[in-house]
């Protein structure tokens, strides 16, 4: 229903009708339209978590995995914005409203970045530093490549070189000297 | 007029009335309301250029100047968003519309960052790399601390530690090893 009507127009009644149940039945599982919208968006966001998590936990040089992780995230966000504009709009609305779903998504992403940083520190590849703070800094410094507010710019031809330059600078900051 | 009525409601007629001239006189200098709005916003944005330019061109370690420059920019943007919300909204609208004024502002800012990077490379303090590409990467990686779309978050208590962590990581990336 979100895909068909968009976040502003899709209603719980539409959802109930499509399921062949009363809207009361839907409300027994989701206490409001917002809660339902959040649950759908969370599941949609989670689609990428597995492939990203696999990269974060793989073997091999931490720098390569970090770059691979960031590239995979950027590609997934671009794809979602391009092929699934209605669900992307729902996600953008949640992100702007500081919803818990958006916060939880960021939490998971920062956690995976922290895992990569920890493994790089453990192997001596990265300088010793607070892995959690660094994971967050990596997330913040790459906002242009995953924050949905920037989606209108993701098709610009200069986004790929911009991404490569930011990545290189961040990796150089992490590397042990 | 932009301060009093906001970007959506301020009109060329309001401006002409405040100046005691006909609106035709205003149009002789600015061909549209958009052109007038852009000129005002550009002058307003330029207020910070001098102090930032002074930091970019000063003597002393490039790393210190870079940090000082980024701190000064972030403080100026926060102040503008806080004390001048109507002009800030005008600026945000221009930034979102990809106006030439916003592009020119970014151009100037990236130019100053490039100047700092060049001086750090020249003194041997920073690793040799393309100064222009690096200036742009520094701008991109610090978007959360100057892009007007993030203004609603700038009063969050975690913005200062987030800024410090991003800054530290970027400076470590620049430093010669």
Integer count of domains of chain A: 1
The assigned CATH architecture of chain A is Orthogonal Bundle
Average pLDDT metric of chain A: 91
CATH domain fold name of chain A: Tetracycline Repressor, domain 2
In terms of DSSP E residues, the strand content of chain A is under 5%
What is the largest interface, and how many residues per chain? A-B, 24 and 24 residues
End-to-end C-alpha gap of chain A: 53 Å
* Category by helix and strand content of chain A: mainly alpha
* Largest sheet composition of chain A: none
**H and E string of chain A:** HHHHHHHHHH
Descriptive key words:
Tetracycline Repressor, domain 2, homodimer, mainly alpha, 177 residues, 10 helices, elongated
Secondary-structure topology with pairs:
2 copies of one chain form a homodimer.
Chain A: H1 2-9, H2 12-19, H3 23-29, H4 33-46, H5 49-57, H6 62-83, H7 85-96, H8 100-122, H9 131-141, H10 159-174
Provide a descriptive summary of the structure in words.
The structure is a homodimer of 177-residue chains. Chain A contains ten helices and no strands. Chain A is mainly α. The first copy, chain A, has a single domain (40-174), classed as Tetracycline Repressor, domain 2, CATH 1.10.357.10. In chain A, helix 5 (49-57) runs parallel beside helix 8 (100-122). The A-B interface holds A 127, 133-134, 136-138, 140-144, 149, 161-162, 165-166, 168-174, 177 and B 127, 133-134, 136-138, 140-144, 149, 161-162, 165-166, 168-174, 177.
């Amino acid at each position: 229903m979100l895909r068909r009507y968009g976040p502003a127009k899709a209603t719980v009644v539409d959802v109930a009708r499509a399921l062949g149940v009363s809207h009361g039945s839907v409300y027994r599982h989701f206490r409001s339209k917002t809660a339902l919208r959040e649950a759908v968006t969370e599941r949609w966001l989670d689609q990428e978590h597995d492939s990203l998590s696999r990269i974060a936990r793989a073997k091999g040089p931490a720098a390569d995995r970090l770059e691979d992780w960031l590239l995979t995230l950027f590609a997934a966000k671009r794809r979602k914005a391009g092929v699934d504009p209605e669900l992307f709009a729902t996600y953008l609305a949640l992100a702007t409203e500081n919803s818990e779903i958006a916060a939880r998504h960021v939490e998971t992403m920062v956690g995976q970045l922290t895992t990569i940083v920890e493994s790089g520190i453990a192997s001596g590849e990265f300088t010793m530093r607070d892995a959690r703070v660094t994971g967050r800094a990596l997330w913040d410094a790459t906002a242009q490549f995953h924050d949905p507010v920037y989606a209108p710019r993701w098709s610009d031809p200069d986004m790929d070189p911009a991404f490569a330059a930011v990545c290189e600078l961040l990796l150089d900051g992490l590397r042990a000297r």
